[in-house]
Amino acid sequence: MNLLEKNIQALLSGVNEPLGNKLLNFIQNKTCSRFSINENLNIYDKTHNVFMYE
Question: Which domain of life is it from (predicted)?
Answer without folding.
Answer: Bacteria
